[in-house]
Amino acid sequence: MKELAKQYDPSQVEDRIYQFWLDGGYFHTKADPDKKPYTIVMPPPNVTGQLHMGHAVDNTMQDILIRTKRMQGYAALWVPGTDHASIATEAKVVEAMRAEGLTKEMVGRDGFLERAWAWKTKYGNRIVSQLKKLGSSCDWERERFTMDEGCSEAVKEVFVRLYDKGLIYRGNRMVNWCPHCNTSISDAEVEYEEKDGSFWHLLYPVKETGEMLELATTRPETMLGDTAVAINGEDPRYAHLHGCHVVLPLLNKEIPIVCDEHADMTKGTGVVKITPAHDPNDFEVGLRHDLPIVRVFTYDGHMTGAADKAAADALFAAGKNTVNEPHVLDCGKYAGMTALEARKAILADLKEGGFLKETEPLKHEVGTCYRCHSTIEPMISKQWFVKMEPLAKPAIESVEKGEIKFVPERFTKNYMNWMKNTRDWCISRQLWWGHQIPAWYCDNCGETVVAKSAPCTCPKCGGAKLTQDPDTLDTWFSSALWPFSTLGWPNEDSADLKYFYPTNTLVTGYDIIGFWVSRMIFSGLAYTGKAPFNTVCIHGIVRDSQGRKMSKSLGNGIDPLEVIAQYGADALRFMLVDGSTPGNDMRYIEKKVEAARNFANKLWNATRFVLMNLPEDFEPGLPCEELLDMSDKWVLTKLNQVAGAMTDNLEHYEMGLAAAKINSFIWDVYCDWFIEIAKPRLNSGDAQQADTARRVLVYVLDKALKLLHPFMPFITEELYQALPGSAETIMTQAWPTFDAAHNWAAEEEAFEKVMDYIKAVRTMRTEMNVHPAKKTSMIIETADAAPFQNAQVYLAKFAFATDVTFTEKYEGSTDGMVQVSTHAARGFIPMMELIDREKELARLNKEKAKAEKEMAMFGNQLNNPKFVERAPAALVEEIRNKFAKSQDKLANIEQSIKALG
């Protein structure tokens, strides 16, 4: 029998246990026709990432599900992997090169990619090793990377398929441009922050009438790109200006006044400036009125100059411009300035020229890059797009039909809002690290060729000089394929794809429903014909103890690895799920981690006690029912109930409730009650009684460890292996389930009557400061004496009774008696010489107030028609029983008060 250390030290257990699991290959899963598959694909953390609390809660929840399903006999596969994270990784490599005095352009694309792969090799496994510290039981033999050969093949297959169907196109469209990352980003990657700004009221002179048109803007630097001013055609204030023009201040350029619904008569002056190259709404106005598109910003956030204009003019002269190709302005004295520098200079010149009427302060939502938090510039740019409407429709229908459900259900609305309002997805990024777009352009005729491999000649003109598009695909393009690209797609004959796909559960945060969840759903339906998973389990974010979001700026981030080093991975895992509810944010509270660590210590010490009381020749297994006493049947029934309840909780993704149940069972039922109850039998000198107690102790502990294992895998493995008769690992043992043969409801109820009475006596003695050595006789008045008669050994040990008399109705003297009351009994204990009457009355009145409060609470629930009609019948019946018990208890207390006079 394995001997346990006196104290539990996670640092001496966790790494050793994890290596044991790896060496045993227990995480690896194969297709098994005799088993039902259960599959989770890990949301791939960025290859640049380090473990944070978001990763910790996400992967703990996945691990709980996968360990449970593994024990329930499923072929449970958890596919791990990492994301290439185009923007973040490229930024890391560029930063490292800058320290060497190098740029991307200096080393060239091939040289840069060589460095990027080297960086990935050196640092990319950091997040993987950290996930292992957490206890993640992924099938590491199947670890994937979004740029590995299989995923890259899937990306090219999808791009070509969509292009051939006309669902991918290239064009000049309005995009969200990050001048710091120097790339376009999708709508989902724009984060809005409230910032202080201004409305600058400008005056544009009307050429035909000489009057001044007042309009307001938050971005006066864009005025150099204005190609029109809009008024509403129904606005009577400006009816006389239809067909007129304004003269653009500073440039002295004539631009038209157009009538368009975009000009809202109810807002401001009802006049808006139109800058088609730098505002999404203005771009649409420009298309409706065939306005020129004039770009005034460079892609690195400066005002355009002569060189920029010359390059654009050359493109037009060569006939290589495409639809909506923007012209470029030489901004003259403002050329080369940043947008903010130009804003100051332009405002100064407008003021000097009399074109700035007033400045109005305001707070407004400003789009920022989700990566670097720089202000996003709406820019007209030539990019690749996915047509979303035909892809979104089946994805909406799939959720409406219930093929995919969100837990909690309220997040279905978030998904639907996103999908129903989605715009075409900009998928090209001006980066080198990532999947290079599989499109080539003929240098001779300009023909575009999209193919999975490089073409030798142009299919249009036969030219042999073709250049691949330098852009890469949005990182989310490849991660959208993750549930099936990791299982062998596009090889539809893949054994893994046939067996493990569709997957079952996606665990993720609510913040990426639009980024990722929606794209996986439409991708799975479009390319495999099947929804990629049936359930999306949403969790909240982990906030600090004050409820604030963790951030570098606040300095309130908690490093999970530091928590693990101090308290152990099991304690962190348990803290993250205990009491949590799906979809809701949680707070990191150190006292909760300490409580989880204390729970682990309590379990360790309880197991040591059990093992120390086992003989060398001990053989585990429950004895026959005839040998079980009332306390044995009580604890086995409680175990049975918690196994059934936890199974149901986990089926409904109520991990917080399941964790709370096993915590309560181990701490309150097993450790605080059953071990203490078993001690008299262990030391009774009756060999058969002692053997029965040992067998029940070991049996219950074995099952409790298995129920706790998905939540606290390390300590449960260590303790399980110490139990006599244990198998090689707890991971592959059967999950405990409800067993009707071990459900003794009558004995449970009977023993709990005894427990309630013992608790009442102990509470009374504590309140009266009665020393444990002081024992006394007692009279128990009860209509059901059998449970108390069968439990006299426990009454002696835990209620400090020297002898007990039973009666259905006590009519003797109450002088010198202290009385305790439960719903099932009243106890009369001769202890008044130790206390005074007034103190006892005060105690009883306190108990009465508590009982009245309980009865009122249950009564209010039962008097609420909505509760009675809508709550599950079992819950309503439970509340009725509690109400009846509280009535009985109150009646007993009132009798005791009356007896004292």
Automatic annotation (TrEMBL):
Motif ('HIGH' region): 45-55
Keywords assigned: Aminoacyl-tRNA synthetase, ATP-binding, Coiled coil, Cytoplasm, Ligase, Nucleotide-binding, Protein biosynthesis
Residues in Valyl-tRNA synthetase tRNA-binding arm domain copies: 838-900
Reaction catalysis annotation: tRNA(Val) + L-valine + ATP = L-valyl-tRNA(Val) + AMP + diphosphate
Domain Methionyl/Valyl/Leucyl/Isoleucyl-tRNA synthetase anticodon-binding intervals: 632-778
Aminoacyl-tRNA synthetase class Ia domain mapped to chain residues: 17-587
GO biological-process terms attached to the record: valyl-tRNA aminoacylation
Entries under InterPro entries matching the protein: aa-tRNA-synth_I_CS, aa-tRNA-synth_Ia, Anticodon_Ia_Val, M/V/L/I-tRNA-synth_anticd-bd, Rossmann-like_a/b/a_fold, tRNA-bd_arm, tRNAsynth_Ia_anticodon-bd, Val-tRNA_synth_C_sf
Family the UniProt entry places it in: Belongs to the class-I aminoacyl-tRNA synthetase family. ValS type 1 subfamily.
Subunit structure: Monomer.
Name of the protein in question: Valine--tRNA ligase
